[in-house]
TrEMBL record:
Homodimer. Residues 167-449 form the 6-phosphogluconate dehydrogenase C-terminal domain. This is 6-phosphogluconate dehydrogenase, decarboxylating. The lineage of its organism: Bacteria, Bacillati, Actinomycetota, Actinomycetes, Mycobacteriales. NCBIfam families: gnd, PRK09287.1. Its EC number is 1.1.1.44. Belongs to the 6-phosphogluconate dehydrogenase family. Pathway: Carbohydrate degradation; pentose phosphate pathway; D-ribulose 5-phosphate from D-glucose 6-phosphate (oxidative stage): step 3/3. It holds the Pfam family NAD_binding_2. It comes from Mycolicibacterium brumae. SMART domains: 6PGD.
Length: 457
């Protein structure tokens, strides 16, 4: 990805792009392989640093974690005040918070930047989510804007999303939503298969959904991969792919962050744990003697509407988490520009994001884009299908944990009173945790073990 970004930069900025890799042969081969690009390669760090104009802007594309610290340690003594280090990896945001502070102590400016779009995106135009000190944006915008993907209105899919670690947090949330959308597509696929369609027919259904505001890169991708035949057998490739889904951590981090921030990201969580169940080989094997078979015959339009409704709920959950974390950490993230830069280049790009961005631009304080028009109306129209599909999926043995999480999330939001009143009362009963009342201010406790009188706490 680093090489692809360097080639993208060389096409878009004046002068040569300096690249560094410890492996001399690798870097020379890279430069030789792309004579059209104005690239220079280094494997000696002081030479690389000396080749850069001041203030230096160095983009790290190294594996997240310890390697990032190691590179920063090596670079720091070679840099001068005001130089900028950008970490473009999928770094866990607490590491970025720490590095921002450590670099500031050395008078270096540190930017944690999420980059989405894979290797092709890096080459042709990724979506980039930098976060850090606002004064740094003026020095990096001219480098990043030309290489970013462009939305349909021509705007580059990069902006400073906020201060501190907000860039990496934003990318983490992007990936959490990616987990949810992938799982929801998988569940829609399972329902279509349970209705008797083969892979090629499912591909056609996904292609037919991929229009207008409903369109998305992942729907288009689903149509593509389901149409793929198996080079070995000639059958549909999907029918030969092992169902153990893996992950590299960003989905889990999103779920942990949701728990830390007290924000429900239940659709993302179910999508993460669906991967866990898929890979729980021994436990799945333990039930192999009592198989259930899937059967559901749902109208395609109902499955589509259920999927679209659940997808909106997943995006709303992710964005609510980002807004809350921004408050907690004081990052000043505005959701309108974040959603704007997700409109192209990134994995979760989708047709409706332009309208989501407009909702946030017009209502910067709104707690939920989904509660605002036009999305409120769309959701209410599609919610009956989501309920019907989730219910029939359960009855028909089609596992749909993300669809179920979405419908339950929305039903809870729309329920006047929740059974969590009983949770509170039970907590008071066994642990004196107190409860609040609907009709009076304050915290209350019942003396359960004696006269059962009520007291303010
Ligand atoms: C992107 C992707 C990219 C990658 C995920 C995959 O935006 O380009 O999100 O970052 O696909 O890291 O994550 P898992 O391996 O955890 O599914």
């Amino acid at each position: 990805m680093g090489a692809s970004l360097a080639r993208n930069l060389s096409r878009n900025v004046d002068g040569s792009v300096a690249m560094f890799d410890l492996d001399e042969s690798k870097i020379s081969a890279l430069v030789a392989a792309h004579p059209e690009a104005n690239l220079s390669g280094f494997s000696h760090l002081p030479d690389f640093v000396a080749a850069l104009a001041v203030p230096r802007v160095i983009l790290l594309m190294v594996p997240a974690g310890r390697p990032v610290d190691a590179v920063i340690e090596s670079l720091t003594p070679l840099l001068t005040d005001g130089d900028i280090i950008i970490d473009g990896g999928n770094t866990h945001y607490p590491d970025t918070e720490r590095r921002v502070a450590e670099c500031a102590q050395n008078n270096l400016r540190f930017i944690g930047m999420g980059v989405s779009g894979g290797e092709q995106g890096a080459l042709l135009g990724p979506a980039m989510m930098p976060g850090g000190d606002p004064t740094v944006w003026a020095d990096i915008a001219g480098l990043l804007e030309p290489i970013a993907a462009k939305a349909e209105d021509g705007q580059p899919c990069v902006t400073l999303v906020g201060s501190g670690a907000s860039g990496h947090f934003t990318k983490m949330v992007h990936n959490g939503i990616e987990y949810a959308d992938l799982q929801l597509i998988g569940e829609a696929y399972a329902l279509l298969r349970a209705g008797g369609r083969n892979a090629a027919e499912c591909s056609e259904v996904f292609a037919s959904w991929n229009t207008g505001e409903d369109r998305s890169y992942l729907l288009e991708s689903a149509a593509t991969v389901l149409a793929q035949s198996d080079p070995d057998t000639g059958g549909a490739l999907i029918d030969y792919v092992l169902d153990h889904a893996k992950g590299k951590g960003t989905g889990a981090w999103t779920v942990i962050a949701g728990a830390d921030e007290g924000v429900s990201v239940s659709v993302i969580a179910e999508s993460l744990f669906a991967r866990s169940i898929s890979s729980a080989t021994a436990e799945r094997q333990a039930w192999a003697g009592d198989p259930v078979s899937a059967s559901a015959d749902l109208p395609v339009d109902a499955v589509r509407d259920a999927y679209m409704a659940a997808r909106l709920i997943a995006y709303q959950q992710g964005l609510a988490l980002l807004a809350t974390a921004s408050e907690t950490f004081g990052w000043n993230v505005a959701l309108a520009p974040v959603v704007r830069i997700w409109r192209a280049g990134c994995i979760i790009r989708a047709g409706f994001l332009d309208a989501v961005s407009r909702v946030y631009a017009e209502n910067p304080e709104c707690v939920s884009f989904l509660s605002m028009e036009p999305f409120r109306g769309q959701l209410l129209e599609r919610l009956p299908s989501l309920r019907q599909v989730a219910a029939e999926a359960i009855l028909g043995n089609v596992p749909t944990p993300a669809l179920a999480a979405a419908v339950n999330h929305q039903t809870m939001l729309m329920s006047g009173a929740l059974p969590t009143a009983l949770v509170q009362l039970l907590r008071d009963f066994f642990g004196s945790h107190t409860y609040e009342r609907t009709d009076q201010e304050g915290n209350f406790h019942i003396i359960w073990e004696a006269d059962r009188s009520q007291h303010r706490r």
